[in-house]
């Protein structure tokens, strides 16, 4: 009992620590991804037209970019430290699947971002205009390619493809790099994440510019920035919506439980509607407290079926259907979770027996154990679950986060259209609610971004690697007090960094661009 | 070429505005805290500190995989 309590505490604290670090880290990342593009466009406009106003705009936004970049740099390394200290089983188990993309990311981050960032930031009047512009575009490219590798690694955790488990080393080994890189999950994740980061950056540019409008300062600079930011924002949010739709289709196939949790859908069926808004409540008639009932729900009929399979009458399973086993729209039969737990137990027993056979040098036993392991490996993670209901993620957190993300996305569509229209007509300042809305959308864009990650990562629970490894198997068995201590150390470090970033950034925004 | 690259960094860093200098100090402090304090004292790589060979690490993880938590 004592072991159970400390083990649960350890898992929970390890998860909280990783979540907190990832949330803080991702506060710095999206602005780097999107603002670098806007900088490159502004500088291109300066090089092409020779208009000084574009140069001043570039230098102003570059200053804010540099603050964000400098404070955020290397914060992701703390996540890598945690892999080695708190998640050692996971880190060994995933082997080169994680190592290879992260090593490539390190090289790109170092050579492209860091090198060209120095030229971009320090090289004014020291290198030619064209080389400076080239460096700015390289910073954009480097940041986005870095993101690709990180997201490929993350996508593999959601949909482990292109690998084979080696029972001798206890590692997954990559047997098809291209399958890992170009899996639909990886592509959807990359494009959805970067386009949402561009949306956040557009909100930032429009919001900061709106502040200048309210203060009646640098009006022409602010108007130009709003026009550029809102056009970029409209394109980015449309791309985010499109890639969100394709991501949901991918989740339908690879993580149906996550989709059911996003919808709070207990019983699926044909022609299932999409819940626009609703409240989740406890329901004693449901078999598990992990399942909730939607109250006061407003749904668009058949939309979930349509979004999942492009057929308004398609069958979409709910949580209970997944627990009981079901036949998908494509005709694939999925066994019940209980059956998958039995398969998982067979895989774990086969792994045990394989290990013994190797030690005893019994080749026949090793071969038969390996055969059983291979047949059941796809369900090995289920063997660690104590109850089928353990396969259900925290539904309310996923359900509400999804709705906040989508709702805010719709708000950003309205913001960008209004901003573009009124900035173009030179009436932005006359409707004072628009600048205020634009400023409010800066923190809201960060909230939407974080909610997206909560849907992706909490919706995957209990898995750290989908179907193969639950979080409680992935952790290092160290004292939970140690994890608690480091949790607070990281919390303090990141909070100080965030306060520093906001403080320096606000001071530089107040100074404004140097004009003329 | 090398001299120009050196001068870019040298001049650039020497002539940085105050806010950029503050940023540099923050970066250096952050990296020192991360690598010298957090990584060395609080976040060592568990497998590397407890096992020396890959075989030992594999055995440890295999035991973890076949022993249910």
From TrEMBL, chain A:
It is a multi-pass membrane protein. The chain crosses the membrane at residues 23-48, 60-79, 99-124, 136-157, 190-214, 226-244, 397-421, 433-456, 487-507. One of its GO terms (molecular function) is electron transfer activity. Pfam families: Cyt_bd_oxida_I (PF01654). It is found in: Cell inner membrane. GO terms for cellular component: cytochrome complex; plasma membrane. Keywords: Cell inner membrane, Cell membrane, Electron transport, Heme, Iron, Membrane, Metal-binding, Transmembrane, Transmembrane helix, Transport. It comes from the Bacteria. Its main location: membrane. The keyword Cell membrane applies. GO terms for biological process: aerobic electron transport chain. Belongs to the cytochrome ubiquinol oxidase subunit 1 family. This is Cytochrome d ubiquinol oxidase subunit I.
TrEMBL record, chain B:
The keyword Membrane applies. The keyword Membrane applies. The chain crosses the membrane at residues 20-42. Keywords: Membrane, Transmembrane, Transmembrane helix. This is DUF4492 domain-containing protein. InterPro entries: DUF4492. It comes from Odoribacter laneus YIT 12061.
């Amino acid at each position: 009992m004592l072991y159970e309590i400390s083990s649960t505490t350890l898992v929970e604290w390890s998860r909280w620590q990783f979540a907190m670090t990832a949330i803080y880290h991702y506060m710095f990342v999206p602005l780097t991804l999107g603002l670098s593009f806007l900088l490159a466009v502004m500088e291109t406009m300066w090089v092409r037209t020779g208009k000084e106003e574009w140069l001043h705009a570039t230098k102003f936004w570059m200053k804010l970019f540099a603050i964000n970049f400098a404070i955020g740099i290397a914060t992701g390394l703390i996540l890598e430290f945690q892999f080695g200290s708190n998640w050692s089983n996971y880190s060994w188990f995933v082997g080169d699947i994680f190592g290879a993309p992260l090593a490539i990311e390190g090289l790109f981050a170092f050579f492209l971002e860091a090198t060209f960032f120095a030229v971009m930031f320090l090289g004014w009047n020291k290198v030619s205009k064209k080389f400076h512009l080239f460096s700015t575009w390289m910073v954009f490219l480097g940041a986005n390619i870095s993101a690709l590798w990180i997201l490929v690694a993350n996508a593999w955790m959601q949909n482990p493809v292109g690998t084979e488990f080696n029972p001798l080393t206890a590692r997954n080994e990559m047997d098809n790099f291209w399958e890992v890189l170009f899996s639909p999950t990886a592509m959807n994740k990359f494009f959805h994440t970067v386009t949402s980061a561009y949306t956040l950056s557009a909100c930032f540019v429009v919001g900061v510019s709106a502040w200048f409008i309210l203060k009646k300062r640098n009006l022409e600079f602010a108007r130009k920035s709003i026009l550029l930011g809102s056009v970029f924002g409209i394109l980015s949010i449309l791309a985010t919506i499109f890639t969100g739709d394709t991501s949901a289709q991918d989740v339908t196939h690879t993580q149906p439980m996550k989709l059911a949790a996003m919808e709070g859908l207990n019983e699926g069926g044909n022609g299932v509607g999409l819940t626009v808004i609703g409240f989740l409540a406890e329901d004693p008639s449901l078999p598990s407290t992990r399942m909730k009932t939607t109250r006061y729900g407003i749904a668009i009929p058949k939309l979930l079926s349509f979004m999942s399979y492009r057929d308004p009458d398609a069958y979409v399973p709910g949580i209970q259907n997944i627990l009981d086993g079901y036949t998908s729209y494509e005709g694939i039969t999925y066994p019940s979770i209980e059956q998958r737990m039995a398969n998982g137990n067979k895989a774990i027993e086969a792994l045990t027996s394989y290990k013994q056979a190797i030690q005893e040098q019994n080749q026949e036993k090793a071969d038969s154990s390996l055969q059983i392991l291979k047949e059941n490996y796809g369900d090995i993670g289920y063997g660690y679950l104590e109850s089928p209901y353990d396969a259900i993620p925290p539904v309310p957190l996923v359900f509400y986060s999804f709705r906040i993300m989508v709702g805010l996305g719709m708000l950003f569509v309205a913001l960008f259209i209004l901003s573009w229209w009124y900035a173009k007509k030179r009436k932005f300042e006359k409707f004072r609610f628009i600048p205020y809305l634009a400023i409010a959308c800066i923190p809201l864009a960060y909230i939407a971004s974080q909610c997206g990650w909560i849907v992706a990562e909490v919706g995957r629970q209990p898995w750290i690697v989908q179907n193969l490894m639950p979080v409680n198997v992935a952790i290092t068995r160290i004292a939970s007090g140690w994890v608690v201590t480091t949790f607070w150390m990281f919390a303090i470090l990141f909070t100080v960094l965030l306060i520093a970033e906001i403080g320096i950034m606000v001071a530089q925004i107040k100074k404004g661009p140097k004009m003329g | 070429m090398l001299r120009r690259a050196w001068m870019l960094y040298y001049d650039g860093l020497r002539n940085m505005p105050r806010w950029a200098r503050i940023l540099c100090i923050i970066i250096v402090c952050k990296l020192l805290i991360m690598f010298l304090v957090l990584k060395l004292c609080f976040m060592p790589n568990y497998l590397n500190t407890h096992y020396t060979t890959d075989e030992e690490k594999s055995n440890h993880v295999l035991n973890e995989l076949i022993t249910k938590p």
